[in-house]
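Colleagues,

For the teaching module next term, I've prepared a clean inverse folding example: a structure given as tokens, and then the sequence designed for it. I'd like students to try predicting residues themselves before seeing the answer, so please don't circulate the second half yet.
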């Protein structure tokens, strides 16, 4: 099957984590994948791009008027696909995509993967017609069903990184980390949310030899934690980003991963949890709506007092921790990137991927199909371009 997917890729964010997990599984299954990714404004890449990826636009939301915005339609319409997938449409350059969407829609079935946690405010979001709309769990249905009347809406859970356990001693040796400390791992874009936990960890450090290891690619957060190393001797701060393989080495070296997120007004998931569940490292999670769909797979806490107790359980190797790791392993096996990728393929087949029929292209009059021969890329000679129709 030929699959085109428009998404962020090889950057530290939840959209990319989802896309990479299922996309790489499709490639392993033997499907032909082409990824249409943005030239990122400032997010660092976690690894070198694959040969099947082309970066041909900039993200839309909040940056449209920024110098350097562009959208190149040619890669989208120079080939045809059995199915065309869009991840997190709200972030994409929707007006430009709408111009060529009729061409894409004539050649391929189209599937939207919803990452938005509520109804988007941009009216362009609702001008696309889809063969299927995918969301992660039942919480999304309440706001999605009225937005897409008559369109097929399907639950396909958020994928997990495949199970990949490692040796703690070897991982610490490779990363030059001490063998005799209890390592609490603090990772990702939101490491600043854990700042208020440091006094609690300090008290616990009087009972256990602790290393609170922070890994972040955000320079402000790096400087924040690095600046506190003189006050809190158990702190160590390292710069990211790292590839998923390197991340798993850090997880194998750690006694616990901590994810502290307050309740959000939107429908949300913790992509970090799904990415890290397969490592064999216990995850301590603040009990909020980010973790509503996870039960015994993570160790939840509601207060700093509970956090202290849960960390003690981990350090002492108590039975409840073993039960959590067993539940996490079963969850990962059921929802691995391969399994979720397979479910997507079944969905693609069920909507007739590869078989075209007379179908509605847009929900509104967003314009006639664009003839590529009458489209040109206009921009600075040494900089990114913008798309404009050629005057007749």
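(Answer key — instructors only)
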């Amino acid at each position: 099957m030929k699959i085109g997917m428009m998404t962020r890729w090889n950057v530290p964010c939840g959209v990319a984590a989802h896309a990479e997990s299922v996309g790489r599984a499709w490639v392993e299954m033997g499907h032909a994948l082409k990824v249409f990714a943005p030239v990122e404004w400032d997010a660092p890449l976690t690894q070198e791009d694959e040969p099947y990826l082309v970066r041909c636009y900039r993200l839309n939301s909040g940056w449209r008027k920024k110098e350097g915005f562009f959208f190149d339609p040619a890669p989208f319409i120079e080939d045809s696909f059995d199915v065309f997938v869009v991840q997190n449409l709200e972030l994409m350059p929707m007006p430009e995509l709408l111009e060529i969407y009729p061409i894409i829609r004539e050649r391929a079935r189209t599937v939207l993967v919803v990452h938005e946690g509520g109804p988007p405010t941009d009216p362009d979001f609702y001008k696309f017609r889809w063969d299927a709309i995918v969301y992660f769990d039942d919480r999304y249905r309440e706001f999605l069903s009225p937005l897409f009347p008559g369109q097929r809406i399907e639950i396909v859970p958020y994928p997990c990184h495949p199970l990949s356990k490692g040796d703690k001693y070897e991982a610490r040796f490779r990363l030059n980390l001490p063998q005799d400390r209890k390592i609490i791992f603090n990772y990702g874009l939101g490491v600043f949310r854990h700042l208020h936990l440091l006094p609690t960890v300090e008290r616990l450090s009087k009972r256990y030899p602790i290393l609170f290891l922070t890994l972040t690619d955000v320079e402000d957060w790096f400087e924040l934690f690095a600046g506190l190393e003189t006050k809190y001797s158990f702190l160590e701060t390292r710069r990211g980003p790292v590839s998923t393989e390197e991340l798993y080495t850090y997880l194998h070296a750690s006694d616990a991963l901590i994810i502290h997120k307050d309740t959000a007004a939107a429908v949300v998931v913790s992509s970090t949890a799904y990415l890290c569940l397969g490592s064999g490292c216990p995850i301590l999670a603040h009990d909020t709506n980010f973790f509503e769909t996870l039960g015994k797979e993570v160790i939840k806490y509601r207060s700093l007092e509970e956090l202290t107790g849960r960390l003690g359980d981990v350090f002492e190797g108590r039975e409840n921790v073993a039960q959590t790791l067993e539940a996490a392993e079963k969850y990962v096996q059921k929802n691995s990137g391969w399994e979720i990728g397979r479910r997507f393929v079944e969905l693609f087949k069920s909507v007739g991927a590869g078989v075209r029929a007379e179908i509605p292209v847009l929900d509104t009059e967003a314009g006639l199909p664009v003839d590529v021969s009458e489209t040109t890329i206009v921009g600075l000679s040494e900089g990114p371009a913008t798309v404009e129709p050629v005057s007749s």
